[in-house]
């Protein structure tokens, strides 16, 4: 099963990667930049595997660049607050 097929698994996966980046000293701005790039890639190149991902992709498709950055930042906060570590 792909990590993208289950919303909780996806959040845990992102949370683990976020913790790793923070442990390696990556700045919050750099993390948000990367999250924005990944969000764009996922929205444009990967089919949504669950309802939550579909909502995010739909929001991403109508958002300005600033709004996309805000969505990415909110995802970082979400996984940071729900992190398994």
TrEMBL record:
What highest taxon heads this organism's lineage?
Bacteria
What InterPro entries does UniProt report for this protein, alphabetically? Answer: DUF3243, Uncharacterised_YmfJ, YmfJ/YflH_sf
Pfam families in the cross-refs: DUF3243 (PF11588)
- Its name, as the record gives it, is DUF3243 domain-containing protein
**Phylogenetic lineage:** Bacteria, Bacillati, Bacillota, Bacilli, Bacillales
């Amino acid at each position: 099963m792909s990590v993208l097929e289950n919303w909780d698994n996806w959040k845990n996966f992102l949370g683990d990667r976020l913790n790793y980046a923070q442990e390696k000293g990556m700045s919050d701005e750099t993390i948000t930049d990367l999250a924005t790039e990944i969000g764009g890639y996922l929205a444009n190149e990967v089919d949504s595997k669950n309802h939550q991902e579909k909502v995010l992709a739909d929001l991403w498709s109508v958002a300005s660049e600033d709004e996309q950055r805000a969505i990415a930042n909110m995802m970082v906060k979400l996984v940071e607050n729900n992190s398994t570590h």
